[in-house]
Design brief:
The protein is 72% helix and 1% strand. The chain is mainly α. The protein has a two-stranded antiparallel sheet.
């Protein structure tokens, strides 16, 4: 079975790393795990000091939460297959069709908005199942499979919209899905929080989550332990598709128009957030909170740079460079971890080896 990434390739092994007894040792181990969190806070503090009138304001916070909630949901959607060692590129391509479909079902076909939302979610989940079938049954690498199906989705979106904007009168209930506030903040931020908490509980505290991580680390070992790799991987793609469909619904509610030119710009930052998240909180392990930290540092960095008057190309440049840096850090950390593990295994084997005995001569 092919695998695009290893979800636990860099995860520390306490049984091999030993106990950190001194403060410098503890700090050295905390920096890889929480360095990105600290960098995010320092970046926010820096922009707050340099832009005191615009950056540290409630208006800017609301703008960041509103703009990046869709990207955060897509990053969480991409995280699910990544846990199993797969990549789902349709999170970026699919949202193009899903947000157009959510609007056209109401404006062109006159469906009530709850039914339109359910149809979009069902289509997204079914497409996720198609991705799972291609990866598990056809044994196509997930990157290639989802790149192909994602391109098909984009073509369908172009055909369905005719390359034009899809506009019309939308009911207040649908607009309120993303346009309302809760506790003074955009409701989209609370959707992200709810999804993140649910994913965290499932991945960290349930047998299902442990099975997904085992598959991502070693699918053959997972099979030998009685875990159905095919069923779990297909379920991960279905969940990813369902969550990307929900993100498309929120995007349609926020924009209130559908157009094929909107959506693809979410793909790179979503993947960057997921990859960058694997270098923090649980270094080397794709994890929910790390993904949100990855999205946060992108959001803060881009917002600050734009307020400094950055050009229109700054955002894709920042996203691309951050992706390269995050993958580079992950690879470097993996090499260090593998070398450390080999040294400790060798030391343990040497310590456990029986010491040579020298038989003493006996005299009659």
């Amino acid at each position: 079975m092919t695998a695009s990434i290893r979800s636990t390739a860099l995860e520390p092994d306490p049984s091999l790393d030993g106990e950190a007894l001194t403060l410098p040792q503890r700090l050295a181990r905390a920096i890889p795990a929480y360095g990105l969190v600290g960098l995010t806070l320092l970046l926010a503090l820096l922009f707050s000091l340099l832009l005191p009138d615009t950056f540290p304001t409630l208006f800017n916070l609301r703008a960041i939460l509103s703009d990046k909630s869709v990207i955060a949901l897509l990053a969480l959607a991409a995280t699910i297959p990544m846990i199993t060692g797969k990549i789902d590129l349709t999170v970026g391509y699919g949202i193009v069709l899903w947000h157009i479909l959510a609007i056209s079902l109401q404006t062109k076909f006159g469906l009530p908005w709850p039914l339109a939302v359910l149809i979009v979610l069902a289509c997204a989940a079914l497409f996720g199942m198609l991705n799972g079938l291609l990866v598990e049954l056809a044994q196509i690498d997930s990157f290639i499979a989802t790149l192909g199906t994602g391109t098909v989705l984009y073509a369908v979106a172009m055909w369905h919209s005719g390359g034009r904007q899809v506009v019309g009168e939308l009911p207040d209930g649908f607009v309120g899905l993303a346009g309302s506030d809760l506790l003074g903040l955009p409701v989209g931020a609370f959707y992200v929080l709810a999804v993140a908490v649910a994913m965290w509980l499932v991945t960290e505290f349930t047998p299902l989550g442990r099975a997904l991580y085992v598959i991502g680390a070693n699918p053959k070992a997972a099979e030998l332990n009685g875990i159905s790799v095919r069923r779990h991987v297909m379920g991960a793609f279905v969940a990813s598709g369902l969550l990307s469909g929900f993100a498309g619904v929120l995007l349609a509610s926020r924009l209130q128009i559908g157009q094929a030119s909107v959506g693809l710009e979410f793909l790179l930052p979503a993947l960057v957030g997921a990859f960058l998240g694997s270098t923090t909180i649980r270094p080397g392990r794709v994890n929910v909170w790390g993904t949100l930290v990855g999205v946060a540092i992108l959001a803060i960095g881009i917002s600050g740079i734009q307020q400094f008057g950055g050009a229109f190309y700054v955002e894709p440049l920042f996203n691309g460079l951050t992706l390269l840096v995050s993958i580079g850090i992950a690879g470097w950390a993996q090499q260090r971890r593998n070398a450390s593990v080999k040294r400790r295994i060798a030391a343990r084997q040497l310590a456990d080896a029986p010491s040579p005995t020298h038989p003493q001569e006996t005299h009659a």
